[in-house]
Write a structure and sequence with these properties.
By secondary structure, this protein is of the alpha/beta class. The chain has 31 helices and 25 strands. α14 crosses α16 and α20 packs parallel to α22. The longest helix is centred in the middle third of the chain and has 24 residues.
Length: 775
């Protein structure tokens, strides 16, 4: 079965978000809701939901045009549309009778074999299908998306009574490849997998903080990055999702679990929490939560809730020795004697033992539980990976010493040596039945992590490595902080390009499995060099980047860039020099150098000019220069790979892959497809407008300065950029300007701007805050 058309019933935040992601996959989808209480526009609720998609931040749509694939409607007039759908998603209110009544209406028009699924987060499948006509349950499933559906990669699937039917397998394949989801098959149990563990964590961590004498800030400083949890921590996360949601989830889960479940032991009444909800302090969507933003005119600052007084106060920086100790290991955190260490142990001991207790009931294997928490809650490591970091035997012994129960699964891991091990060149997991089994990979998935586990790099420096992917394809991997680019990685890149042919390799893929492809140049190193006036070293660095990227462009074999996450500045420039790009859909690509007072210096200006001359675009020197100037001067960043294509960072022939785990395999396949008869491009020549073109570009910049949309230093940077893009003072549109001439202009512009105090101030501010300075 192929998913050619879908429908979502329920145009709330989740329903509209699911419809948006289906549209992002290029599939038409009907979005239906009830009739409005008044007015003549019968589709008003769905129409307004689609309109909100374009205004929501973060954006549910990967491209504004995707909204055209969503057709609004209502369940009174348009249920007959469902007969054309291969997949129907119910996303209505969490009321069992309302859902069952809707299913009966849907089943009357749904064609046999089409999947009907519920996005429920609190109800079990056995409850939902009870009383449905005979045989109807066979086409039913739970497909539990996480919010927001575009960005949260987890999709939990609970199969109906017929199990994983061919239709449900086709749906899972569609969700994997087209929606970009990481699939976790769950058993039909309360909370499924991620929320069963996650809700336990939210309850335990928040109550233990309040009762353990920690401040909001201290609890979040412990229960965040030291544990591999996002920096929102526990209370920042509660504010984000909404405090008012938590009691409903808690009560639903508690009601569904047997009295013997350890979840009941951590539940306690917290009057302050309920008072906050009653008073409208429900988090970011309300008047505030555990944190609130206070505005005083143009100024604003955060305050935090004081557990003792119930009042807000200015933020107090958390200074716990245990948090510092966590840098050397998770065990050092939980063994630390201060209140942060005691808090970490109280939470993690209960949480991780609960995961071991519940796992055989809720999931197919331990890897599924860890995967669910990584993809659904953005944890860096799942609960069993956390146990292994401390040592399963040590953890079990300390639980016993603490007079806490040691679940049988944990006892088995302690005896075996952990939940995971390396075996036969692959990662293996401890099975529920005992013994180790391989962690399965979906067909077509290639992970660099597996390649690295099975062998050694062809070459390596501190910030980058070269790997053999097999079939004559190599992979260049950045692995520095934020995958920033330094002299060592540039040297290795150039050496790799020059040396791969000698090794008999056919192609190169530039890729890594970090959170971001590359944040660009190592800004700290550049600022250090500038502050010491090490200008020759700086110029050598710029020249080295230009030489390395030129080697990529003119390599005798195809080089394919495969970005995911941020590809900014120098990270974007390396992509612009590749023969082809295969980008993850969530790639945020842009040339942002003007934000730190610089211009692209590793060929980015040159390559954007070349893209402005692509077939189908207006001809002549000025349109290309204008396009590049507007994009670079404004530091535009595509908020998806589709938007990056609009900006010219991706070509029409470049590919976009929805699933992050399939990116490397797709890039390797693209590289191999280009190998036959591959020839590097001929050196480019440009006919640029020269001084008259520069003047025209600066007219636009001056308008922005007069309007207050750009500062005086923005104008200085823009003028340096305009000089490069117009070809310099000697350029004339009747005379060809070589690539090397443009890169020389880039180098001169950078070296001039680096000497300006306001540029250095921008660089320092960005390093300190992660935000641009408008000076």
């Amino acid at each position: 079965m192929e998913i050619r058309r879908a429908a979502v019933i329920g145009a709330g935040v989740m329903g509209a978000g699911i419809a948006a992601q289906i549209a992002n996959a290029g599939v038409g989808v009907d979005l239906l809701d009830i009739l409005p209480k008044e007015g003549t526009r019968r589709d008003l609720i769905a129409e307004q939901a689609i309109e909100r998609l374009g205004k929501t931040d973060p954006q549910p749509l990967m491209h504004r045009d995707n909204a055209r694939l969503i057709r609004p409607g209502n369940i009174e007039d348009h249920l007959d549309r469902l007969k054309d759908c291969d997949w129907i998603v119910e996303a209505v209110v969490e009321n069992l009778e309302i859902k069952r009544a809707l299913y009966r209406r849907v089943l009357a028009v749904k064609r046999p074999g089409a999947i009907l699924s519920s996005n429920t987060s609190t109800m079990r499948l056995s409850e939902l299908v009870e009383g449905l006509p005979g045989g109807a349950a066979g086409d039913f499933a739970i497909t539990h998306f996480f919010n927001p559906p575009r960005y949260m990669r987890l999709l939990e699937i609970v199969a109906g009574p017929a199990g994983r039917t061919p239709a449900l397998q086709a749906l899972a394949e569609f969700a994997d490849r087209r929606l970009g989801k990481g699939i976790v098959w769950c058993r039909d149990t309360p909370g499924f997998v991620a929320n069963r563990i996650g809700v336990f964590w939210l309850q335990c961590a928040s109550l233990e903080a309040a009762e353990g004498g920690l401040t909001v800030e201290e609890a979040d400083s412990v229960m965040s990055q030291p544990v591999g949890i996002p920096k929102t921590g526990i209370f920042g996360l509660l504010d984000l999702v909404g405090l008012d949601l938590q009691p409903h989830v808690d009560e639903s889960l508690a009601a569904a679990l047997p009295a013997s479940d350890p979840y009941h032991a951590i539940r306690r009444n917290w009057p302050l929490f309920h008072k906050m909800i009653a008073d409208g302090f429900t988090g970011r969507k309300g008047k505030g939560g555990f944190y609130r933003m206070v505005r005083n005119g143009a100024e604003k600052h955060l305050e935090a809730l004081d557990f003792k007084t119930g009042q807000y106060r200015p933020l107090i920086e958390a200074r716990l020795d245990s948090v510092a100790a966590a840098k050397t290991g998770l065990r050092d955190l939980v063994e630390h004697p201060d209140k942060g260490g005691r808090y970490a142990w109280r939470v993690l001991s209960r949480l991780l033992s609960y995961a071991a207790h519940a796992a055989p009931e809720i999931a197919e294997d331990v890897a599924s539980v860890d995967r669910a928490m990584r993809l659904g809650y953005n944890w860096k490591r799942g609960p069993f990976e956390l146990i292994d970091r401390m040592g399963a035997a040590w953890f079990a012994e300390r639980l016993a010493a603490d007079k806490q129960a040691v679940p049988p699964l944990l006892a088995a891991a302690a005896k075996a040596g952990g939940f995971y091990r390396e075996g036969d060149g692959q990662r293996q997991q401890l099975s529920f039945a005992g013994g180790y089994i391989p962690i399965p990979r979906a067909e077509g998935v290639l992970l660099l992590d597996d390649v690295k586990r099975a062998g050694k790099p062809l070459a390596s420096v501190a910030s980058a490595s070269l790997w053999d992917l097999g079939d004559g394809v190599a992979c260049f991997e950045q692995h520095s902080k934020m995958n920033s680019i330094d002299g060592e990685s540039l040297a290795l890149l150039k050496q790799s390009v020059e040396g791969l042919a000698k090794r008999g390799m056919k192609a190169l893929v530039i890729y890594n499995e970090g959170e971001n492809f590359s944040a660009g140049v190592n800004l700290g190193l550049a600022l250090f060099s500038a502050n010491l006036a090490m200008w020759p070293m700086m110029e050598d660095m710029v020249a080295a980047g230009q030489a390395a990227y030129k080697a990529v462009k003119y390599a005798p074999f195809p080089v394919v860039g495969a970005p995911a996450g941020m590809a900014l500045g120098g990270g974007c420039e390396i992509l612009l020099h590749c023969a082809a790009i295969v980008a993850h859909a969530e790639s945020y690509i842009g040339l942002v150098e003007t934000g730190v007072g610089l211009v692209p210096g590793w060929g980015g200006c040159k390559e954007m000019l070349a893209r402005g001359l692509a077939p189908g675009l207006p001809k002549g020197p000025m349109p290309a220069a204008i396009h590049a100037f507007e994009t670079i001067a404004a530091a535009k960043v595509g908020r998806s790979a589709a938007e990056a294509r609009d900006l010219g960072f991706l070509k029409a022939s470049d590919e976009i892959v929805m699933n992050r785990e399939r990116l490397l395999a797709a890039a390797k396949a693209k590289a191999l497809a280009l190998v036959k008869d591959y020839k590097p491009p001929a050196p480019a020549e440009f006919h640029l407008p020269g001084p008259s073109g520069k003047t025209a570009l600066m007219l636009a910049a001056d308008v922005f300065v007069r309007q207050g949309k750009a500062t005086a230093h923005d104008r200085v940077v823009a003028e340096a950029l305009a000089n490069v893009l117009s070809g310099g003072p000697e350029a004339d549109q009747t005379i060809a300007t070589t690539e090397d001439k443009i890169t020389r202009l880039e180098r001169e512009a950078i070296m001039g701007l680096m000497r300006l105090p306001k540029t250095l101030a921008r660089m320092e501010h960005t390093l300190d805050t992660g935000k641009p300075l408008r000076n």
